Amino acid sequence: MKILSLVLALALSGTALAQPQPEQKMDDTLLQRQDLAYRFSHLDLDSRDGQRHYRLWIGQPRRPAPASGYPVLWMLDGNAAISALAPQQLQALDNGQAPLLVAIGYQTEQRIERTARTYDYTPVVPGLAEQRDPLTGQASGGADEFLDLLEQRMRPMVAAVAPVDPHRQTLWGHSYGGLLTLHTLFTRPWLFSDYAAASPSLWWNDGAIVAEMHGLQERLGSNRPSLLLMRGTREPATPRGPLQGDVQRPARALVASLTGVKGLSATFQPFDGLDHGPMLPASLRFVMDRMSGDDGAL
User: Fold this and answer.
1) Where do the domains of the chain lie, and which CATH numbers do they carry?
2) pTM across the whole model
3) Strand, helix or coil at 231?
4) 140, 175, 193, 199: which is the annotated catalytic residue?
5) Residues in the chain with pLDDT < 50?
6) What is the DSSP string of 237-279?
7) Could you tell me which of 43, 254, 270, 294 has the fewest CB atoms within 10 Å of its CB?
8) Catalytic residue among 113, 193, 201, 276
9) Which tens digits make up the pLDDT trace of 154-173?
10) Is 145 an active-site residue?
11) Whether 235 is catalytic
């Protein structure tokens, strides 16, 4: 653990945090098509305080559900995830285990809703007088509120639309979504059977996510989840930092630390030549390719 903290500190030294650039509009052309292996519908709901407005796009295979219910692939940054889908990916999924797709997005035309996701995808950092995102200065620390909403409201809403298999549930997230994916695994490992964290923001608040590993062994109980951690070889260690040194070392070190947790299967997958942005569609495609296999394993 000390080695991993040192690696993160070295990665952060001398690197300035940059403001994100405005995002493009969501591409929803796939949702309009009627000739796909999946048919899409959506559900809307609000956060408990009424400040964030969600839209769940649900992609249901046209084939009947298995007796145990559909396995489910939950996708964070749902607007961007829908924009990244391609018809051939859906056909490949249908030829495999045909999971139910649930893209958790926001009621906006934007591909990325930065203010809401910044709050929803970041955990509370103990000891901070004010929970503010170091990258944007926006309010942060709403991860557990979001997970409560997912568990208590989103899941029942989805289960009312299609039969689901509670034992085969995968969570995928990229960047801050990857940060939330790790937070979910470390604090509520029973929520999903499989976790796919793409380019997780390990730098966030000086590597605060690493401290959440403590006690994971006890929290696992009888659960046996898997983690697939993905990162591009052209991604700097921090947002728009220089591409120098072994930028993948913190991710590899994290996975190495997790291999000592009994009951958890942790794998690191590098993506040669990819930077941070292209990792979103590439990682989602990789996860879907795995789920298209005969066993559907990550």
Assistant:
1) 2-291 (3.40.50.1820)
2) 0.92
3) strand
4) 175
5) 1-20
6) SSTT----S-TTHHHHHHHHHHTTSTT-EEEEEEETT--HHHH
7) 294
8) 276
9) 999 999 999 999 999 999 99
10) no
11) yes
